């Protein structure tokens, strides 16, 4: 019984070994003749085709130097012409289109990740040198593999069929004399298959080397990576600014419209004139917000340009902002000691958004039955904005909250200012937006912006 088990174990081992051997053969065949290997072979053949004009130019110089009248018929002179043509190829690689075309070919034929390549012209001296090195390697390897692809297959086919056709042995094909021996004739098919495998191996190896070297020679240099990082940072900054604009304009509009509609509903029967004013304010608010929304979305759409409507500022629309907020029934006391006309445009625009978001937070979290105080004043070379409202219990607040205080802090930081927000004066910016503790007290937002700030 133990012998039977032992025999079964041995048989299983043999089967497993056979399966593993079959898998190894398939993997080897894939490396030599798989889709990626074939595409890289095509890439090398293209390199050989590109090398032909340079080889012909090399023959123009090699012929007179060597005194030969038939350079094409001498294999050694052909190699010398090929070597003479490669420096010419390196010189012509300095044309701007060389790197984009080579990078595209490497991406599609060699299977190199697109993020590892640069598709723009080489600008710096180092980038041009790497492009020249790559072009020379591509044409050099391509010329060798292309030449082998033309010469090796016919010779290998002759070796494979040589034992079957006696007339091939008798013809003047220039075959080695050793093939006249019986033992050599019997091994000629094996030699022919070995030649084909050697050709496939050389092509696969050369293609793999070029694919490995491509990111180093055609990829981004440190200065390219720095430029790309700066471009991404600039794009992110623009998108963050647009997100803040969208949040502040739309968020304020929704809060104001909600307040106005709520107040109009309560006095619908008793005060028609107030309802009429509230509806007019809703109409004006939504019209202005749609215009700002179109401007922001126009930047986000691919191929579109920003809208032509000017951004609201303290000098242009502070009075309208206060009027629309009051139209909803909010009891707002505003004190303005700074002249908005004298403020820099950037400061006036950012300060408008800060005031707008501060009032929106007061409406959203304090409600419309409390007194809100707004102060905009100049003090010691700074524009100070203060919004105060009584704290209310959390169960009395309207639902909402988001990134308003964070947006205010971002705007202030870009201008070199500071933000304090919390229960009471000078409490810092701790706590989440809209999180009002229970009990009496005042919620205070204080923003201090320098009038003169770095450009």
From TrEMBL:
It is an enzyme of class 2 (transferase). Its EC number is 2.7.13.3. It catalyses: ATP + protein L-histidine = ADP + protein N-phospho-L-histidine. The chain crosses the membrane at residues 39-57, 77-97, 133-166, 186-211. Residues 423-433 have a biased composition (Gly residues). InterPro entries: HATPase_C_sf (IPR036890), HATPase_dom (IPR003594), Sensor_HK_TwoCompSys (IPR050482), Sig_transdc_His_kin_sub3_dim/P (IPR011712). Residues 420-441 are annotated as: Disordered. Residues 239-303 form the Signal transduction histidine kinase subgroup 3 dimerisation and phosphoacceptor domain. Residues 350-428 form the Histidine kinase/HSP90-like ATPase domain. One of its GO terms (molecular function) is kinase activity. Keywords: ATP-binding, Kinase, Membrane, Nucleotide-binding, Phosphoprotein, Transferase, Transmembrane, Transmembrane helix, Two-component regulatory system. It comes from the Bacteria. PANTHER family: NITRATE/NITRITE SENSOR PROTEIN NARX-RELATED (PTHR24421), NITRATE_NITRITE SENSOR PROTEIN NARQ (PTHR24421:SF10). This is histidine kinase. It comes from Streptomyces pseudovenezuelae.
